[in-house]
Amino acid sequence: MSTNLAAKKPKKYKQFSDMIEHILNILRGSKGKNENEEFIRMIFEAKQEMLDAQCYFDNITTPELVDYAIYKMEAAKSQYIYLLKLAKDKGLNGDI
Fold first, then answer.
1. Rounded CA separation 88/95 (Å)
2. Is the overall model pTM greater than 0.70, yes or no?
3. What is the pLDDT of residues 50-72, one digit of tens each?
4. Domain locations in the chain?
5. CB neighbour class for 73 (10 Å; exposed up to 12, middle 13-18, buried from 19)
6. 49, 79 Cβ separation under 8 angstroms
7. DSSP code of 10?
């Protein structure tokens, strides 16, 4: 028996995928469905990047990488906040 471990998704990605699918189902009837779907997907990806950057910062042990970790966290946070602002401008804030 051969199992493909690379094909199995971690639990957090399954939950993430379920959240995206739920939001996309809400938007199914609205105009610009594909555009909204892609935009919401971008927001969730940005949020995941922000969480990953925080996790990286929390787990680094090399003092030389602290500045890089901080830069990575701030960049991810800025992108996430920017996308949330755009979502609000598009009227998607209640769906996210």
1. 10
2. no
3. 999 999 999 999 999 999 999 99
4. 40-96
5. buried
6. yes
7. P
- Other C-beta atoms within 10 Å of 43: how many? 21
Low-confidence stretches of the chain (pLDDT < 70) are 1-14, 25-33, 93-96
In 10 A of CB 80, how many CB atoms? 20
CB 87 within 8 Å of CB 43: yes
Tokens at 58, concatenated: 């929390």
For 3-33, b/e burial (b = at least 16 CB within 10 A) is eeeeeeeeeeeeebeeebeebbeebeeeeee
| b/e code 54-64 from CB counts within 10 Å (16+ = b) | eeeeeeeeeee
Question: In the numeric block, which tokens belong to residue 37?
Answer: 């779907």
